Amino acid sequence: MKEISGGVCAPKGFLAGGIRCGIKPTSQKKDLALVYSNNFCSAAAMFTANKVKAASVQVSMANIADGNLQAVIVNSGNANACTGEEGLKAAKQMAKYAADALLIDPELVAVASTGVIGVPLPIDIIGKNINALKANLRNDGNADALEAIMTTDTRKKEIAVEIEIDGKIVHIGAMTKGSGMIHPDMAAAKHATMLAFITTDAAVIPSVLNECLQKAVKKSFNRLTVDGDTSTNDMVLLMANGQAGNKPLVKESDVFYKALEFVCVSLTKMMARDGEGATKLVTVTVNGALDEEAAEKLSKSVASSSLVKAACFGADANWGRVLCAMGYSGADFNPEKTNVSFKSSAGEVQVCRDGMTVPFSEDQAKRVLSQEEIEIFISLKEGNGCASVWGCDLTYDYVKINGDYRS
Amino acid sequence: MKEISGGVCAPKGFLAGGIRCGIKPTSQKKDLALVYSNNFCSAAAMFTANKVKAASVQVSMANIADGNLQAVIVNSGNANACTGEEGLKAAKQMAKYAADALLIDPELVAVASTGVIGVPLPIDIIGKNINALKANLRNDGNADALEAIMTTDTRKKEIAVEIEIDGKIVHIGAMTKGSGMIHPDMAAAKHATMLAFITTDAAVIPSVLNECLQKAVKKSFNRLTVDGDTSTNDMVLLMANGQAGNKPLVKESDVFYKALEFVCVSLTKMMARDGEGATKLVTVTVNGALDEEAAEKLSKSVASSSLVKAACFGADANWGRVLCAMGYSGADFNPEKTNVSFKSSAGEVQVCRDGMTVPFSEDQAKRVLSQEEIEIFISLKEGNGCASVWGCDLTYDYVKINGDYRS
Question: pLDDT tens digit string along B360-377?
Answer without folding.
Answer: 999 999 999 999 999 999
